[in-house]
Every structure is written in structure tokens, then in C-alpha cells.
Design goal:
With 176 residues, the chain is α+β, with helices and mostly antiparallel strands. The chain has a single domain (2-169), classed as Beta Barrel (Lipocalin). The chain contains 2 helices and 11 strands. Strand 7 and strand 8 form a beta hairpin. The chain is globular.
Length: 176
């Protein structure tokens, strides 16, 4: 039952964020100073897994990603819904992470924060967007941020390659 409530809440948070973003009811989502950003518009939307490489044979959270969606901070009445990454795992579970981007770093960096019943876990990573392809290299909690888009033995790291999910209307219309 708890998993169902978490799944419903995660989907609701994503839907509110995407709805508010779609109607233009939010600011541009960028914060000033320190090179931190709440949103990079290239990331927004849904992504499907193309490939995954892990630095270990051990089953890790990010080695089970099936797809994900980035939302941006949204105002919903008097409440602010934070930027989120909603991740669908291969076993059907849905996880929701707060995220912060560091766009001035080379390569560009991301921190994913998973709130749990215990202390929050932060996963440090780097990302690169090339058209409709997203590469994410994520380290395990309490691990250093990757410096390159690679996995090396014993590093507790996962490299995800994702493709932007095409809207059903775009797929039906085909190319112009």
C-alpha cells in the first residue's frame, strides 16, 4: 500500500509540474549565482532508455532504469513544487528525485536527491544533451562525482544513454 501511495504522489508531482510548465505559469526556473540552476530546458520531458553500463555486476538502483522524466519548478497556488526527476524502474516502481544542475561545470553536473524515510541520499552525476540523446553518468551515494562519461571497475557508477520520447501526436504526424 505504501508503494502505491508513493507511486501516486510521484505521478501527481510530475503531472502538476508538467501542467504548470505547459501553461507558462512559472518563471524560467533559473536561479542566479554559483552556476546552480533548477532547470535546463533541454532536459525537460520524457526519456526512454537506450543503453545502460554499470561498473559492477551488482544490481544497483540506476542499472534498473527504464525511463525518466524531468520537470521544472512550478508554482501551484501558494505552494512551490520543486524540480523533479521521476524515474520508472524495470520492476514498475516509480521514484521521484529532487535535482540541482551545475551548468557552469565541465562536464555539466547534476545532483539527484532521493528522500526516504531515513536520511536523504544524494547521487552525484554528470550529463550531456546532444539533440534528442541524453547521457547521464551517476555515482552511488557517498561516491565522488564522475569526471568522465565512463564506468570503471569498482567505481559504483552507471552510464545511461537515453532518447527523448516522442509525443504520440508527433509520431502520428510524421516528419513535415
Amino acid at each position: 500500500m505504501y508503494l502505491s501511495q508513493v507511486k501516486i504522489l510521484s505521478v501527481l508531482v510530475a503531472a502538476v509540474g508538467l501542467f504548470c510548465w505547459g501553461i507558462g505559469g512559472v518563471s524560467d526556473g533559473l536561479s542566479a549565482g554559483e552556476g546552480r540552476s533548477k532547470t535546463d530546458h533541454r532536459l525537460l520531458g520524457q526519456w526512454e532508455l537506450v543503453s545502460v553500463k554499470a561498473s559492477t555486476d551488482k544490481d544497483t538502483l540506476f542499472s534498473r532504469v527504464e525511463g525518466l522524466a524531468f520537470t521544472k519548478e512550478a508554482a501551484f497556488g501558494a505552494t512551490t513544487v520543486p524540480s523533479r526527476v521521476v524515474i520508472e524502474l524495470t520492476d514498475g516502481r516509480i521514484l521521484s528525485f529532487d535535482y540541482t544542475l551545475f551548468l557552469s561545470k565541465k562536464p555539466q553536473a547534476i545532483d539527484l536527491v532521493l528522500e526516504t524515510r531515513g536520511p536523504a541520499e544524494t547521487f552525484h552525476g554528470i550529463f550531456k544533451v546532444d539533440g534528442d540523446t541524453l547521457q547521464l553518468c551517476i555515482s552511488g551515494p557517498k561516491e565522488d562525482r564522475p569526471a568522465a562519461f565512463s564506468v570503471k571497475e569498482g567505481a559504483n557508477r552507471v552510464l545511461l544513454v537515453l532518447q527523448r520520447k516522442q509525443n504520440k501526436t508527433e509520431a502520428a504526424d510524421g516528419p513535415d
